[in-house]
Each structure stands twice: as C-alpha cells, then as structure tokens.
Design goal:
Length: 380
C-alpha cells in the first residue's frame, strides 16, 4: 500500500505549525546582557538575556526603520535600544522611549509595539512559543527532562497505551537536568523532510553504514501507541550492537509536535540502575533550512561514555545531513513522493497529526490525535 506524500514545500499545505514550543538555543550560548538574532519559522527573532539572567524574545525588526534590534544593546534598565535612532523597548516589546522627541511633541510611545514571544528556559535549553495569533497565551508547556538519577527500574512506567497516553517526555521526576553532550548541525531541507528522516526506522542500514552500528538486516516488530500530540515506540530491547556497551537495556522512542524526539534508555550497570535521555529537535529556521539539535542527559557516573559521543555523535548526525542534502537534487524537480506501509508509517502519522493540529488551530477546535495503537513490521 502506498500514499502520496503531502509536503508543505510542494504546495499542498502549511509548512509550519504554531501554538507550540520550539527549542531555539542552548542556555550556555546566551550570556548575560547579550542579544542575538535567531531565525525561527522564517521570522527574525531577537533572543536576549537580561543582566539578572532572565531570557526574553521579540521580533528582531525595529518598527521605525526596520533595523535589527539585536544589533543594539541592553541598557542598565533592561530596555533594548535600537542601534539606529536609540528607540527603547521593554522585553514585552512595548516602546518606552523615543529620544528624538522634544517638549510639546506629544506621542504615546506605548502604542508602538514589537511582537514579543513567550520564553521558557529549563534543563539547559531555551524554548520559544510561537502562537498562531500574536499575544496569545501558551496552551501548553515545553517538555521537561526527567531525573536521570539512579532508581528502581521496576517503579518506572515502562510504556504507554492508547488508554493511558503520556506527556512528550519519559516518565520521571521533572528537574533541572545538566546537559552532558550536545551537537547542532544545519540541514538544508524543510522541517518536514528533517522530521521524516528523524523518525524513519528503515534507513539506518544504508545511511549509517558504520561497523559500530550496522548489522545484518532482519525483520523488526515494534509496538506504537498515541501520545497527546504524537506517538511512542514503546519500551523494547534495542537491536544495534552499540547499545551492548551499556549491558542489558531497554529503549523507548517518542515523537510529538512540532518536532521533538525523545529516546530513553533504561538499564543496570555496575550494580546501579541508570537512565539516559536523548532529546533531538528539528528547529525550522526557514522553509529550506532546519537545525538538528541533539542533547543527552545521563548520571555523572556514566561520564566514561562521553568519548563515544564526541567521536561518533557528529558522524551519526552528519550521515543524515548528507542524505537530505543529496535528496535535494531530486526535490528540485518537485516529484510526487510516496509513503509505504509499515516502514513509512511514522511519516504517515506525522503528516496526519500535523494536519489535524493545523485544522484545530485554524478552527479553534480541540485537537484529536488521529494515531491509533498498532504493531508495525519492517525489515532493516
């Protein structure tokens, strides 16, 4: 069975989903008193950090003459000063001062406003909420990283079902977790192609053709279940030989809109239980460029595995980057693309979930996840 692939860039639908949180930057990359421009969903966004550490975001265009506000500076009073004429804006985007005005020139500066964005900073990550309508209050929260501290595996929630969907992060106590490793690479493709590549279970044998990862193709059978805005491949024993370094482990993989993938490894090593949480997000900078940001969290005593991340992580992500850039050569001709059962089912679900979210956002109705609990079988 095949389906025609419906992609925003091919003109069959909206490319970006809104009323959701987008991971925009690592906390460590934004110093106190600093500002910088980040492209997000094709829009210029000023990301700044006040001297007290508070992070804020607003549209990076001065409404006066269009200069990028990020090229200005943060003043002692916390205002953002435009580099062109010195106009000042609060972190809420409201203009507080126009220096060129003189006595008798009555003008209500507060009526001038730059769009501001809700921001959340947690677990070493900065999330920006992009609403469908400017000024809207966030309808949800960005995902939190659960504790990776040792505990009883038996007490963990080992899976999800259609009856008991979970949030888009693995079970566990939500705390401020420390990033142990991270990597960011720019993929020159739309967010749709980036997400599909991220969730594709059948490409590894050909794209990641490394001795430390590959093994003879065999039939896989995995259980999937719906989540609030996505789906989960429930806990199972991983088949790749690289995982054997950690002893007996189980892995669970979740995906939720807009582009958030968690992989959680649980196991026991040296007599201690552990949890490794890998978060990968696709952050759309514009219609044809998407950042793949991957971060890992794990207990301090597993630090001996860090050299493996440093050595293999960039290569692994680079494999996917190279194939999507190669794919661009064919996409230039705007071909009809296909999705097949069952290996492409996660991609089919992604498009259906995205479509349902776009419709609910446009109509103001409650979102209903179209994903149904199911076992998928494919060979890879």
């Amino acid at each position: 069975m095949t389906e025609t692939l419906a992609m925003g860039r091919e003109g069959t639908g909206e490319l970006f989903v809104r009323d959701l949180w987008y991971m925009t930057a690592l906390s460590a990359s934004l110093k106190r008193g600093a500002m910088r421009r980040e492209m997000l969903l094709g829009e210029p966004v000023l990301l700044g950090r006040e001297r007290d550490g508070t992070v804020f975001a607003m549209r990076d265009i001065c409404p006066h003459r269009g200069a990028p506000l990020s090229a200005g500076r943060i003043l002692a009073n916390g205002a953002v000063q435009c580099p062109y004429h010195g106009w000042e804006f609060g972190k809420d985007g409201v203009c507080s001062l126009i220096p060129s005005l003189v006595e008798g020139q009555d003008m209500d500066c507060s009526r001038i406003k730059v769009r501001s964005y809700p921001v959340k900073e947690q677990d070493g990550l900065i999330w920006v909420y992009v609403a469908a309508r400017p000024g809207a209050v966030p309808k949800n929260e960005p995902p939190k990283i659960p504790s990776t501290d040792s505990g009883s595996i038996d007490q963990e929630n080992s899976g999800a079902s259609a009856e008991t969907p979970r949030r888009n992060f693995p079970s566990g106590r939500a705390t401020q977790q420390k990033i142990r490793w991270h990597e960011t690479q720019l993929f020159r493709c739309s967010i749709d192609h980036a997400v599909i590549g991220l969730m594709d279970p059948a490409h590894a044998a050909y794209v990641h053709d490394h001795w430390w990862w590959k093994r003879k193709p065999r039939v896989k059978e995995k259980h999937y279940a719906p989540l609030p805005t996505g789906f989960v491949m429930t806990a199972h024993k991983p088949s790749k030989p690289a995982y054997s370094l950690l002893g007996e482990v189980t892995t669970e993989i979740t995906f939720e809109l807009p582009s958030t993938r968690f992989e959680t490894l649980r196991g026991r090593l040296f007599g201690r239980t552990f949890k490794i949480v890998g978060l990968t997000v696709c952050t759309p900078r514009d219609a044809e460029n998407t950042d793949i940001i991957q971060v890992f969290y794990f207990p301090w005593w597993l630090g001996f595995i860090l050299p493996l991340f440093w050595l293999l992580g960039p290569t692994f992500i680079g494999d996917d980057r190279k194939i999507v850039e190669l794919q661009r050569e064919g996409l230039k001709f705007n071909p009809n693309l296909m999705l097949i059962q069952d290996g492409d089912q996660p991609a089919i679900w992604y498009h259906r979930v995205k479509k349902a979210w776009l419709e609910s956002t446009e109509k103001g109705t409650e979102f209903v996840n179209p994903v149904q609990e199911r076992v998928l079988r494919w060979k890879s």
